[in-house]
Amino acid sequence: MLVNLKEILKIAEQEKKAIGMFNATGFDSLQAIISAAEELNEPVIIAHAEVHNVYNDVSMVAPAMVAMASNAKVPVCVHFDHGVSLDMIYKALRLGFTSVMIDASSLPYEENLKVTKSVTEIAHSMGVSVEAELGRLIKSEAGSKESALVGKPEDFYTRPDQAKEFSEQTGIDALAIAFGTSHGFYTAQPKLDFDVIKNCAKETGLPLVMHGGSGVSAEGYKTAIENGIRKINYYSYMSKAGYLAAKKVIEDGSTNYLHDVAFSAMQAMKEDVKKAIKVFSMK
């Protein structure tokens, strides 16, 4: 069942849980995510990140994503993640994505607000939800350290008062906030500031988004959800599960066929997604 982000996050709010967003970088990961959600009878968000466009062009994967979401037995949102170029965001809108993220967080606040408001007006006219970001994570979506961020990570956490103004003036449907997570793999458990979540939720009244969700402890997820996180972006450790499964098949020499390797990776990713969904669902 194809739905937009606002609709799927309404379910999250009603049930006081978070919906997992998983990047579908190919047909193997797309199959893994949808089948995992269907087995658990839980809603899910499938995403194509602009940074991943080099691996699978959005024009090729969008029709498959929309078709699989439409035919799924559970609510599925098709999300364009970390859109930094307006051309790519508008392309995603034309291709049938039901949610887009405008990531102008690297711009000065006033510019972020202006660009986000413009995208929101266009997307809403098409029935598409919008997520935006305020504050900065220490690592970019591509996994590299943000060279422009000089100082302590907490210096770039989302300010609740600013989040209130930003959400009111842009009309967005969900807000990604910075409170201690990081994109990519963690070398140690992140120190999360749950007061930032609580205060941003109170000031904005919006469903909040955790970026860099892979690698957070089960207790960290639980507390974040209790304070207002309703969407969790999860990719790195799902991808690693697939990589390790593929590596094992290759190293044990059990097959010379690429499809066997890809199938093993898909199954491993599916199991990892199921584990994440169970935690996010507070079960």
Kindly describe this structure.
With 283 residues, the protein is α/β, with parallel strands linked by helices. Helices cover 48% and strands 16% of the residues. It is built from ten helices and nine strands. It has helices spanning 5-15, 27-40, 58-71, 86-94, 109-125, 160-170, 194-204, 218-226, 236-252, 258-280; strands at 2-3, 19-23, 44-49, 76-83, 99-102, 129-134, 174-177, 208-210, 229-234. An eight-stranded parallel β-barrel has the order 2-3-4-5-6-7-8-9, surrounded by ten helices. Strand 5, helix 5 and strand 6 (129-134) form a beta-alpha-beta unit. Helix 2 (27-40) crosses helix 10 (258-280). The longest helix is centred in the last third of the chain and has 23 residues, at 258-280. It starts with a strand and ends with a helix.
What are the defining features of this structure?
globular
Secondary structure blueprint with pairings:
Blueprint: E1 2-3, H1 5-15, E2 19-23, H2 27-40, E3 44-49, H3 58-71, E4 76-83, H4 86-94, E5 99-102, H5 109-125, E6 129-134, H6 160-170, E7 174-177, H7 194-204, E8 208-210, H8 218-226, E9 229-234, H9 236-252, H10 258-280
Parallel strand pairs: 1-4, 2-3, 2-9, 3-4, 4-5, 5-6, 6-7, 7-8, 8-9
Helix pairs in contact: 2-10, 6-7, 9-10
SSE pattern: EHEHEHEHEHEHEHEHEHH
Radius of gyration: 18 Å
The 3D shape can be described as globular
What portion of residues belong to β-strands?
15-25%
Strand order of the largest sheet: 2-3-4-5-6-7-8-9
How many helices does DSSP assign? Answer: 10
Q: Give the helix level as a range of percent.
A: 40-55%
* β-strand number: 9
Largest sheet: 8 strands, parallel, barrel
Structural class, from helix and strand content?
A: alpha/beta
Mean of residue pLDDT values: 91
Give the termini distance in whole angstroms: 23 Å
The parts where pLDDT drops under 50 for at least 5 residues are 140-150
